[in-house]
Amino acid sequence: MKLIKYPSKEQGAELLKRPALNTESLFDTVRTIINKVRAEGDKAVLEYEAAFDKVTLSALTVTSEEIQKAEGLISDELKSAITLAKRNIETFHSSQRFVGKKVETMEGVTCWQKAVGIEKVGLYIPGGTAPLFSTVLMLAVPAKIAGCREIVLCTPPDKNGNIHPAILFAAQ
Questions:
Q1: Where are the extended beta strands (E) located within the chain?
Q2: To the nearest whole percent, how much of the chain has pLDDT over 90?
Q3: Burial class, 137, CB count within 10 angstroms (exposed 0-12 / middle 13-18 / buried 19+)
Q4: In sequence order, what are the residues at sequence separation of 6 or more whose Cβ sits closer than 8 angstroms to the Cβ of residue 35?
Q5: pTM of this prediction?
Q6: For the ranges 20-29, 38-47, 146-155, 156-165, which has the lowest average pLDDT?
Q7: Which residues touch 114 (CB under 8 Å, ≥6 apart)?
Q8: What's the number of CA atoms in the CB half-sphere (13 Å) around residue 41?
Q9: Beta strand 109-111 with 120-124: parallel, antiparallel or unpaired?
Q10: Residue 128 pLDDT > 90, yes or no?
């Protein structure tokens, strides 16, 4: 950490500048990754997992045994907190359900709106060194309430190749 005391106005202006990242240089890298995953599927994802997260995985899906084991690895207090948070999120988002209303704009002409949930959604949950199990609840609960039929959750593993147990518990 760098401690700066009483900077001059010139120094202050420089210190307050936001860092800028040239994203143009990232496009080719991202395009290469996407094209490889399109062409090779899970094989490419497993290779990138090894390259980026330094973890060698045998599969990309979580087994039911891993989910059952995860429940035993977190405290009852945390389970209760996750369950309470889920209930609160359900209550809030259930109150936002869209109720269509028919409007007769002129004689014989009726208009209405219809809300339809996205059939398939993919959710990214931060994991690894910063597992955010609350993100599971904040994304998956509204998706279920909205009527999404297929919800795919993706999260990086920790350095041992495991998904944080609280993420797995919240995902059930």
A1: 103-106, 109-111, 120-124, 150-154
A2: 68
A3: buried
A4: none
A5: 0.76
A6: 20-29
A7: 100
A8: 3
A9: unpaired
A10: no
